[in-house]
Amino acid sequence: MKKMQLSYKYINLIITVVLFFALFAAGSVLYNGFFSTQVLLNMLIDNAFLIITAIGMTFVLIIGGIDISVGSVIALVCMLSAYLLEIQHLSALIVIPLMLLMGFLFGIVQGSFIHFFTIQPFIVTLAGMFLARGLCYVISIDTIMITNSFYQFIATYRIPLPFDNYISISVMIALALVAAALYLNNYTKFGRAVYAIGGNAQSAMLMGLPVGRTKVLVYGLSGFCSALSGVVFSFYMLSGYGLHAMGLEMDAIASAVIGGTPLTGGVGFITGTVFGVLIQGVIQTLIMFQGTLSSWWTKIAVAFLLCLFIVLQRIVVSRKERTKSIS
Amino acid sequence: MIEMKDGHFYGVTIDILNRAAPLMLLAIGMTLVIATKGIDISVGSMIAISGAVVASLIGGKLEYVDGVKTLITLVPMPVAIITALLVTTLLGMWNGLLISKVGIQPIVATLILLVAGRGIAQLITQGQIITVYYKPFQFIGTGYILGLPFSLFVVGLVFGITFYAVRKTALGMFIESIGINAVASRFAGIKVSKYIFSVYAFSGLCAGLAGLIICSNVSSADGNNAGLFIELDAILAVSLGGNSLDGGRFSLVGSLIGALVIQSITTTIYALGVPPEITLVVKSIVVIIICLLQSAKFRKIVFSKWAQKRGIPSEKNAAKL
């Protein structure tokens, strides 16, 4: 029976991976020039920031919380770094660490509110979302273009790969974060504690796990990831604007859910989240190659997948409950 | 503050009331949803859909027939309005079905529609902003009856019916009991899933009405921006009104006041000449303060000393801690 449960847990992950390759294969059959490594790599290039955010989100979801402030934090990081670089003329080497620190502290403060005052994560991060988005407009209402040479260099630099392929530095950052997150999630006390708390916070506390510290740190991690994502996003957009990354939090949550992380906590996969992002990428690319469909179909397709996976998760959970009640 | 001009009331107060109408409608629906311990984050998308449906049905064609500007409506206005309301109610039912029958968490279930809704609205309007030239339709958002904005009468009607239903019948008590303990309510013989389902459908209907008012007010349907982030305002209005997000006891009047407070903040900021976007910062500070006041732990830390000194045993504290 243990074996069965294990396979239930992985069922979403497996479906996601299979679906990704199926969609990619379908695209390759339907459209000329779809089947190339560069198309695959472009998905990574265009979605590097989403991967980074979604990883932070995965940790938050595993612990049983939610963080809807990530999109706004990205916008704030873009805006603030544009302001510091262009108007205060600070060096990029000061600005980037500063932004990462700010994101981390932003998350820590949110986490503290959630843990110490037991306010619902949704509401706290909602306030954080308003605050970050509003602060963007306090800095400037208009777009600030980034002309800093270091940012320009990173934005345009292409790391050459064999067979005429290339990736951007952002992809390297995202992949490094994926590796770090995998290690953190699977091989550290912190990662194990996150799963335990997500499964049952009370039991985790009785087991002597540092529930409060882990919870606050997870929100800090999510803040850090959004800040990193904001830095990557500013490489991608080369500008700061208050409307950047609008609604990105929902894309990040959708990626995690499609990747097999339910919103109930206790379960989640970093790899799944990456594939969740890539599925959105593949849908985008398919619609781009198709040419006539409006880009809104991406949203609808993602929502459809989301619905499918949520219902699937529900079925898995209810089946588990049934086996539990029988035994 | 209020003066009479051309048989209408004018003034800041009327302006706030008029502009807050969609938010008040949403807050009424949202209060019931939150009272069942749920949440509906798809109302903004439903507003966009409602606007898109009504605008595309009424049609934006302005043609010259015999040299006279005439408007071609595709279907009569009442049909368009009823269709729009029907569509959003159906979407609300979809939410309700996912939550009550399939058993998905409310925030997740409504997330689906939040993601898809704007896409659907864009498809209905074919990616364009549809302008409605049909004059009678503009009456909903800008017309006056007895010197008061027509939208207020819509709010009044919805509020009246809802208030009657929840306070003069057992419905309100059922909803509260579901919010406090759904399992116990089921054992007590309340058809929990039926009520949860209806509450979301009703929220959809309210969102549809709000969408009509917004669409009519600006005479156009914009799938991208109509009702953007209004779901957060609606949730904020409900919690500002003193309703706990954990469900249970609720106050419709409180939510209406919450909606008015939010609109007053916005209007004040406009009047001060500060960039309107800064509203968000003010709102976030308000949310934080409200949340801290609602947090039992925070009250314990801050107010217990004060209460001890004054010798006031706080009833709420005693109950919660």
Strands side by side in the biggest sheet of chain A: 1-4
Global morphology of chain B: globular
Category by helix and strand content of chain A: mainly alpha
Most extensive protein-chain contact, per-chain counts: A-B, 45 and 47 residues
- How much strand of chain A? under 5%
Helix content of chain A: over 70%
The rough form of chain A would be described as globular
- How does the helix and strand content of chain B classify structurally? mainly alpha
Structural Rg of chain B: 21 Å
The number of helical segments of chain B is 14
Trace the largest sheet of chain B across and list its strands. 1-2
Proportion of residues in extended strands of chain B = 5-15%
Number of helices of chain A: 13
SS elements, strand count of chain B:
8
- Termini Cα gap of chain A: 10 Å
GO molecular function (chain A): transmembrane transporter activity
Subcellular location (chain A): Cell membrane
Membrane topology (chain A): Multi-pass membrane protein
InterPro entries (chain A): ABC_transp_permease
Describe this structure in words.
- The complex is a heterodimer of chains A (327) and B (321).
- Chain A is mainly alpha-helical.
- Chain A has a domain of 218 residues.
- Helix content of chain A is 76%, strand content 4%.
- In chain A, strand 2 and strand 3 form a beta hairpin.
- By secondary structure, chain B is mostly helical.
- Chain B folds into 2 domains: 271 residues, no CATH class; 44 residues, no CATH class.
- Chain B is 70% helix and 7% strand.
- Chain B is built from 14 helices and 8 strands.
- In chain B, strands 1-2 form a two-stranded antiparallel sheet. In chain B, strands 3-4 form a two-stranded antiparallel sheet.
- Chains A and B meet through helix 5, helix 11 and helix 13 of A and helix 4, helix 10, helix 12 and helix 13 of B.
